Amino acid sequence: LATYKTFLRPGRNLKKLGEWAVVTGATDGIGKAYAIAFAKKGLNVVIISRTESKLQDVKKEIEELKSGAECKYVVCDYSNFDKSAQDKVNDAIKDLDVGVLINNVGISYRYPRYFDELNDTEVAQLMEMNVSSTTWMTRMVLPGMLSRKRGAIINISSGSAMYTLPLLAEYSAAKSYIEKFSRALNAEYQKKGVTCQCQIPFYVATKLAKMRKSLMVPTPKEYVNLGIKWIGYPDAVVSPYFLHALQGWVLDQLPDFIVSAIIMSMHLATRKRGLKKDARLAAEAAGKKSE
């Protein structure tokens, strides 16, 4: 069954879900790849991110596809997704026939650290960008989807949600929230024509991950080429990239304390390098001030 779903099952006709797809965090990585993939299929796209110049570049790239898809953009900094920002986004999409929402925007630590080493701004931004954005964006599109009795909400989580992740505690917890949120919403609304799916990538070659492409690390386009085929199906939690699914299965066979110990060791080494880099940059900045 897993082989069929991953390799043989055809993707849904997403235009039957609605005329528009909304993608957050759409100027890089998985979000950008999804926006372009939707446009290629003839879906109109609303792309949302914080940097207008990057949004304009993606909009231009979509228009150059000449697929007939329309592209709109909304400038929004999800690290401060207050009522004013929510209203701005809602005003831009409330009258559209939104069939697909990709909640992709997110942020991780600059490098692994103990929770008490994070500053208040970092703690707040991690919550805003990983939890609040997904929750409020879902509330925006859900009423319209329910009234039309069709729609698909895709929440991008992370392999971090599946395991104990010391030194990335808040990020891991936020991604776990996305998984549970998606499972519950899918159970609530599937019979009403709206599916909610949590997609769990492991490492993808994005700026956030800072990883190079390899067999285990697909490009965003490679990931999305598989991920898009799952949209609209009732599977609540999926790892579309088959080697990520295999990686998850292997890790699931190990006791949690072993996985946690391995990750702790890896993260301590990365933390040491990060602290060393911060100290060097601070010293350089202090030297420039004294000149």
UniProtKB/TrEMBL annotation:
InterPro entries: NAD(P)-bd_dom_sf, SDR_fam, VLCFA-Steroid_DH. It comes from the Eukaryota. Keywords: NADP, Oxidoreductase. One of its GO terms (molecular function) is oxidoreductase activity. Belongs to the short-chain dehydrogenases/reductases (SDR) family. This is Steroid dehydrogenase. It comes from Cyclophora tenuis (Marine diatom).
